[in-house]
Design goal:
heterodimer; A: mainly alpha; two-stranded antiparallel ribbon; 2 strands; B: mainly alpha
Chain lengths: 66, 299
């Protein structure tokens, strides 16, 4: 899956650690998500969408990550 | 939420650290008998032979650290680990050839708990794996205690936030718990070897040490699991799934070979050793691929 997490996070001036703390996950999880090496659970995807004030589809797209 | 703080400079001294560690290893060891005999065959006086055998591993470690840092520059963590593993294997072989690093340990143990018989292949493997795990555990403990600086020293930068150049308290706690679990597993493996090597009347104490350190390792794993998020839990589950498949395959093939009289019966210690090794390799590989593989360092 592709995602816009890195861009969205940068737009808000948040570090990986900041976002990790907000979502109650590890910093490595944020890094793995951003680099497309890990696809989140449905629950984490919803929490992410809520945190950014977007829908899941606006953050994640089904194409394979680069 | 707060914005990221500017990165603080790291003042690690990796080469100096490894020089000091190598000097300690050299000072605490003694040349192996076969290597000394070889020096004698080459016509070197005893003192010169001893000097060379003590010095060679230290120089090799310094050279290896410099080569490893050069080769690892700009590589992903997975490739770096492979480079370090290959260089570490060569270094370990050279050091073992020159110096008997654990020469005094069995003697001290024998003085405490009675004589130990010579280790067989499995016991030698348990000693080696236990020592490696204890060293890794000590390194991780240093990273947990001293954060970014220690991580840079041991080239474990992947444990540090690439943006903040620091470690959060929660990350330090997790690394510290991993270090405790790894060191406890190392102690359990070595004390299991000692239990097997001890005479019947002297097996109780090393068996108890094995039991207690095994319990500490299990407790550390449980505490870690409770603190894991979904990514780390999935990594652990994947590693255990791979381990289960590999161990089943190995024991299946072994059973066939045993039925044909080609190999000896596999005992529980061998199965445990294989399981720990496979879990360690599978877990490290899964972590490197999923968590750290994208990070590139210039260390």
């Amino acid at each position: 899956m592709k995602n816009q997490l890195r861009v969205l996070r940068a737009q808000r001036g948040w570090s990986q650690a900041d976002l990790a703390e907000e979502l109650n996950v590890s910093r490595q999880t944020i890094n793995a998500l951003e680099t497309g090496r890990y696809d989140p659970s449905l629950q984490l995807a919803f929490t992410l969408a809520q945190t950014f004030g977007l829908t899941i589809e606006q953050i994640f797209s089904p194409e394979k990550a680069d | 939420m707060t914005t990221a703080s500017p990165p603080s400079p790291r003042k690690a001294r990796p080469v100096l650290t490894f020089v000091l560690l190598a000097a300690v290893v050299s000072a605490a060891s003694q040349p192996t008998a076969s290597s000394l005999a070889l020096m004698g065959e080459w016509g070197l006086p005893d003192l010169a032979g001893r000097l060379i055998l003590h010095t060679l591993p230290v120089l090799a470690i310094i050279l290896a650290v410099l080569i490893a840092r050069f080769l690892a520059r700009g590589r992903t963590v997975s490739v770096r680990w492979i480079i370090y593993a290959v260089i570490g294997f060569i270094l370990g072989f050279l050091t073992a050839f020159c110096l008997d690093v654990l020469a005094g340990v069995p003697v001290d143990l024998a003085a405490l708990n009675g004589p130990l018989r010579e280790p067989d292949a499995l016991e030698a493997a348990l000693w080696s794996a236990g020592a490696v795990m204890m060293v890794l555990g000590a390194m991780m403990l240093a990273v947990a205690a001293f954060g970014a600086r220690a991580a840079a020293t041991f080239n474990m930068d992947e444990m540090v936030d690439p943006e903040a150049h620091d470690m959060r308290r929660a990350e330090r706690r997790a690394v510290g718990m991993s270090a405790l679990g790894m060191a406890a597993t190392g102690v359990a493996l070595i004390s299991l070897a000692v239990t097997r090597q001890s005479s019947e009347g002297a097996q109780l104490v090393p068996a108890l040490v094995t039991l207690v350190s095994g319990a500490v390792s299990t407790l550390a794993s449980i505490i870690l699991w409770r603190g894991f998020d979904e990514l780390h839990r999935r990594l652990v589950i994947n590693a255990y799934a791979v381990s289960a498949i590999v161990v089943t395959s190995v024991t299946f093939c072994w059973a066939i070979a045993h039925a044909m009289g080609l190999v000896a019966d596999m005992d529980s210690a061998t199965i445990m050793g294989i399981l720990i090794l496979i879990q360690f390799v599978a877990g490290s590989y899964a972590s490197a691929k999923a968590v750290y593989a994208s990070q590139v360092t210039t260390a």
